[in-house]
Design brief:
The protein has 711 residues and is mainly β. The protein has three helices and 37 strands.
């Protein structure tokens, strides 16, 4: 694999690519959340060459929206989307387990499965791609990220329980026809990115995006017998097209193909020869994981103006995704395929400056083909099997009305009526208000219903990195039902060197009417899957943001988040949700010299404690001391730093992650064998109880090359 990877790495820079940041006249990033709204690819759009904030709260959005710009994506290594949220307290990223490298986000104190991920208005990272979807999006492909909290538009369905994260990719009409990026980390991970924008005559343009990443070798710095990070190799290629007719008709379409291979756990694991019946002799038959994921996606978006201007138009969006995941964990195999189809037909009419409405038809269909075979030791070996095809989907109609009274007041009301294949007819209302009593103050309120199908085993892929037995309805797709309400108040004022100083506070509450509960704490080295069914489950989230430029070219951003998440469990009453951090604070400092020749970035975060699972209370370190004597994880800091030197068309950067070298101790739990290592063949084995960093200090270096288009 090493020889193949090095060969491909050497060949990759022969491709061409592009990078651009398109902004509006107010300096904010434009998006493509609609076919005809905020055209970031129009010929009249301006290319920003001034210094841009790395992240900020959008002033014009009706819903509280945090924007991570291209400058923010360059503050850290940002090898993938998973590394792009370290400067944000709104989104917390952690590991699903200590074996697979799967990353998951948390928004409003809840798992990322309740956040709707959008690729320029198309739902993505659903089903089998959700565990590894964050690593499937290279950070250097992105132009910006918009994080909208709470209930938002009903146009793309109501799977956004806690919010939406919209990804803006590089555009076919970018003004930089060549961009190359290469980076390497001290853990031997290498990352290569390309993009090429080509204008083919008057009406056609395209962008090609390429990515290869992987590591040459693995390591075991904590000497627990398990690799700190899996061996991996990923290939990723996308091609996006834009046709812009003289009569105003737009057509966007594209394809994407991906293959991701990762192997974790103990060195030498081979699922073809592994047997749980082998004697427990040290090194006799290594336990591990072997996962291969493949994805193929194609989409088309068509916008047709009705009359002059963009006041009326019809838009059609269709998206098809095929996903294949072959995964093996010790003696467990989970093989799955997913076919997903999303279609949206909508009509938009902007009657005048005050009134606008959107109406349409929308549908989603998922076909899951799952084959599970799991053998674990309870008293003796027990085998669990599940296979079959499940079809899930919903279709319905929606309408959304917007009233605007200048810049002072905006009100949006949306309603969906959908027929769910195993849930019947459901109405989903949503409402959003934005009010600015004076220019310096903006108040936002939003709320509504969210619905999504659970995919229990994939949503909680860490359960495979255990020796525990599964009980309950792990093979059912519960229609989860939740309501989210909240609001935000932002005060803008002149202070320091920037007129954009702001202080912002927001609060959101999510309450579940139905939820798939994954319970590690019913005892017996088992994991129980069951529905909430009338019990209580909620999350309260408070956040404070402050951003200021005290002097020219020096930005200071401080963010603090507090989460109170509770759930009512059978026989135990109302308890704090386990493995959910109760607070996070982030301080980000950035200073740039004149003309931004040198850019210095520093980020410090303080991560709060969380309640551990009951079975973790007896966990001890190498000296026999209890790891969680008070039933909670420790509070820990993380530090990041990066220095960038810019030349004409070239950026060279170097940095470090987790400079405090903090790592979670004894992340592999269970009964220890004669070699002192945890025995993965017994029911007490658990590598899924992850709450902190798995890797220590990492340093990296990279280079970006940009060739600007000649005008």
């Amino acid at each position: 694999m090493r020889r193949i990877f090095l060969l491909l790495a050497a060949a990759l820079p022969t491709y061409v690519c592009v990078d651009a940041q398109v902004t509006g006249p107010d300096g904010q990033v434009l998006d493509t959340t609609g076919i005809y709204r905020d055209r970031s690819d129009s010929l009249e759009a301006a290319v920003s060459v001034s210094r841009q904030q790395g992240s900020y709260l959008s002033r014009g959005k009706t819903v509280r929206t945090e924007v991570i710009s291209s400058a923010g994506l360059r503050k850290m290594a940002c090898c993938s989307l998973a590394e792009s949220f370290e400067n944000s307290a709104s989104v917390t990223v952690g590991y699903s387990d200590a074996v697979t490298g799967a990353r998951q986000i948390r928004l409003l104190g809840l798992s990322g499965i309740y956040t709707q991920m959008l690729d320029e208005n198309r739902p993505v990272m659903r089903g089998f791609s959700s565990p590894f979807g964050l690593s499937y999006v290279p950070g250097q492909w992105l132009e910006s990220i918009q994080i909208a909290k709470g209930a938002s538009s009903v146009v793309n369905g109501v799977e956004s329980v806690t919010g939406q994260i919209n990804l803006e990719f590089r555009k076919p009409l970018d003004e930089k026809p060549l961009f190359l990026n290469a980076s390497v980390m001290s853990d031997t991970r290498m990352d290569f990115n390309i993009a090429s924008s080509l204008q083919m005559g008057r009406n056609w343009s395209t962008v090609i995006l390429g990515h290869i990443s992987g590591n040459i070798r693995s390591s075991d710095h904590n000497r627990d017998g398990f690799m700190d990070a899996p061996e991996m190799l990923q290939f990723n290629l996308a091609n996006r097209w834009l046709y812009y007719a003289d009569n105003g008709v737009q057509m966007r379409f594209g394809v994407r193909a991906l293959q991701d291979m990762r192997r974790g756990g103990q060195e030498g694991y081979d699922y073809r020869t592994y047997s749980i019946d082998e004697p427990d002799v040290p090194g006799s038959d290594p336990w591990g994981s072997d996962i291969t994921g493949r994805l193929l996606n194609g989409y088309v978006k068509v916008g047709i103006p009705l009359g002059t201007g963009d006041s009326q138009n019809i838009a059609f969006v269709a998206d098809y995704t095929f996903q294949d995941m072959d995964s093996h964990f010790g003696s467990t195999s989970y093989l799955g395929q997913q076919h997903s189809l999303f279609a949206n037909l909508m009509y938009q009419n902007e009657i005048n400056d005050r009134h606008r409405f959107v109406a349409g038809l929308n549908g989603v269909f998922d076909r899951y083909d799952e084959d599970l075979s799991r053998t674990v030791r309870v008293i003796g070996p027990v085998t669990l099997e599940k296979n079959g095809v499940t079809g899930l989907g919903y279709a319905g109609a929606f309408g959304e009305y917007t009233f605007r009274a200048g810049d002072k007041f905006t009100a949006m009301a949306g309603l969906r009526g959908d027929w769910y294949s195993n849930g019947g007819f459901r109405l989903s209302p949503r409402a959003m208000l934005k009010y600015s009593p004076v220019e310096e103050i903006t108040v936002r309120v939003n709320g509504g219903r969210g619905l999504r199908y659970a995919v229990p085993l994939v949503d909680n892929i860490g359960v495979f990195s255990t020796g525990k037995m599964f009980y309950g309805n792990y093979d059912e797709h519960t229609l989860e039902d939740a309501w989210t309400f909240g609001g935000n108040i932002t005060y803008y004022f002149h202070f320091g060197a920037s007129p954009g100083t702001y202080l912002s506070f927001d609060y959101f509450r999510t309450m579940f009417a139905q939820q798939m509960v994954v319970d590690y704490e019913m005892g017996g080295n088992a994991i129980w899957f069951y529905n909430l069914d009338g019990n209580r489950s909620w999350s309260d989230n408070y956040q404070l943001d402050f951003s200021v430029d005290p002097v020219e070219r020096f930005n200071v951003t401080v963010t603090c988040r507090y989460t109170d998440a509770k759930i009512e469990l059978p026989g135990r009453g109302l308890v704090e949700k386990p493995m959910t951090s109760n607070f996070k604070g982030v301080l980000n400092l950035q200073y740039a010299t004149r003309l931004s020749k040198w850019i210095f970035d520093f980020t410090a975060s303080l991560n709060g404690s969380c309640r551990v699972y009951d079975f973790m209370l007896d966990a001890v370190d190498a000296d026999g001391n209890l790891l969680y004597g008070n039933g909670r994880t420790p509070v820990y800091p993380l530090l990041y730093a990066q220095v960038t030197r810019r030349f004409r068309g070239v950026e060279v950067y170097a940095g470090g992650e987790n400079l405090t070298n903090f790592r979670q101790k004894n992340v592999i739990l269970g009964t220890r064998g004669s070699d002192g290592f945890v025995n993965p063949r017994v029911a007490s084995f658990d590598a899924s109880a992850v709450w902190g960093p798995l890797m220590g200090v990492k340093v990296y270096a990279g280079v970006r090359f940009t060739l600007w288009k000649k005008i």
